[in-house]
Amino acid sequence: MDIVTFRPQRQLALFSFLLALALVLLVTPAAVMAQDGTPDGNQDNDDQIIGYGILGEGAAGPHFVRVQVSPAAPKEGILRFAVRVRDLETGEDVDSAIVRIFATPAEQGQKQFSPALNSPFDPIFYLAQMELEDAGIWAIDIEIESELGFGTTVLSLRLGPRTRGATGAAWGTALYLLVSLAFVGGGTWLWYSSKKARQRQRSQMPQRSRKSQKL
What we know:
The chain has 215 residues and is an alpha+beta fold. Helices cover 39% and strands 35% of the residues. An eight-stranded antiparallel β-sheet has the order 1-2-3-6-5-4-7-8, with no helix packed on it.
């Protein structure tokens, strides 16, 4: 009876180990990004948002503006912008500004516009989202209006073509497949092992009953 119960316990422990390993691999990229600041490990500023890259910074009238973009390597599709506005003289954050973002393609495509809004939960960053579909150079105009005055700055953004074989996407797909394999394969293994153990247990029961009858 000890042999019957030992193998499922060992297989359960092995399945738990594989599952833990898959979860560790799944969490590792997020931990690396949190430590390095960006996916490529380039941390230049203490206010950089995880998953974003620094697009540029500079004066916009009486304001100092820093703009971040996600993904850090912009490609065709949805882009997210985070704008931090500070007083150019004091360096204090301005949390009551009106922020507008314009994106103008250098060659072809339509000019895009989006307001950037902050919230009481995160008043430091003004967030906006745009969908840019034409690869190439884009001019990003940032307009700032606050009690300090009005200002604007222009940044350059290089938008890459949409690619399906990107490293990040491949890494994420591999992790997803690994976790799925750990769940499905491990569960199937446990089911099969338990079935075999029950069959062995049933096959041993008649032998034991015959021995008890002889006694």
